[in-house]
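S.,

As promised, the zinc ion run. Input:
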Amino acid sequence: MMEGLLFLGFVAVISEAAPVELYSRDKVLRLKPENEQHLQFLRNVSLPEQVDFWKPACAELVTTNGTVDIRVPADWVAKLQSELEKIALKYEVLTEDLQILIENQFDQRSTRDIHYNYEAYHSWNEIESWTARIAEENPDLVSRMEIGKTYEGRSIYLLWVGNRTGAEKPAIFMDCGIHAREWISPAFCQWFVKEVVESYNSIPLITTLFNQLDFLVVPVINVDGYIYSWTKNRLWRKTRSKNPGSGCVGTDPNRNFDAKWCTLGSSSDPCSEIYCGPHVESEKEVIAVADFIRNHSSIIKAYLTIHSYSQLLLYPYSYDNSLPFHHKELDDLAWNAVEKLRSLYDTKYTYGPGASTIYIASGGSDDWAYDLGIKYSFTFELRDTGQYGFLLPESQIKPTCEETMLAVYHITHYVLDHLY
Ligand code: 0X9
Ligand code: ZN
Ligand code: ZN
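Predicted complex:
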């Protein structure tokens, strides 16, 4: 049976081709707006419709204190470059040909070994069968449950990881794959579960840890979007729900939570990358996660949500500039966590409240979880800082996951020492 499963997995892998050529000769530019005129330009019609914002995800979120990464369609590059020069808006070219970068990522996918390969990105089929297998192979430590279905009817799984002591234990909730194109995120959730399972049996410290708490891990929330990013458009972000009366598809799940929903830093335009949806929790994927957390809020002591890219560790609030009641404690904890992370490969993270560290954006899961009463609520933005962006090469999966583990373990130990 096992052999059969693995073989099927293999067949599925080799039949996966790179998505259609949407991005031939498109460039990714990093802009450095320095004044109001620059911001005006970026928010303005002088940008072609098809330009998309990588970081931040939308023109409305651009500020003067940061940089902006945008994708520019091939036939617009020359025109845009001359306009940028006219107003002296400085930029650098991050990517010369986006399609080549995308195709390289598909071509260079490492070959599977007989065991599961944690240093490769995996399709949803592979991840789904992995969730079944890891639970099957570790019946004492991992159980899989379905917490809901996606818009297109697929299962959203949660892995309940922890030694069954019989007693009710505090838990840390972690989700990955809210945004479809951030592939390193599901890869981290898989790495995390693997690491925990392996070290449970070999490292006494970890054994003790798992007698005291559980991890609740959702490897991919936005399954429909994730599949779409594998098959149709590598840079898809949102869900795949249809918007009545609009040709544009999808809602940004991280603008759809009940946290000052659809106010600042989100859009009511279904065509926007940061569309908040028709109402709070309109997305089945968001309901699934929010319902699960509400139903287990007495045991969930920390909420971690994994995104990419930018190398940030964010705590509330993002919905406005106010600071959470526990901001001093969260700030210290974040500082220590990024120090641990940096100790391995010297990867530098910035940390702080979302609004002042990245941008104001309402309707996010971290703010919602915090306001529900989960004190330790963090958003991770994993590697890199823009060289590859969402197209982080597979060769960076291992170091990224290893260093991130240190931060997550640090938070875990802290939470255990500060139960509330
Ligand atoms: O904008 C987001 O949703 C996150 N960045 S990403 O590039 N991965 O899309 C940041 C989320 C920070 N938290 C909130 N805005 N609540
Ligand atoms: Zn609805
Ligand atoms: Zn994201």
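Residues 397-417 form the longest helix (21 residues). The pocket of zinc ion (ligand 3) is lined by residues 178-179, 182, 307 (CB under 6 Å).

- D.
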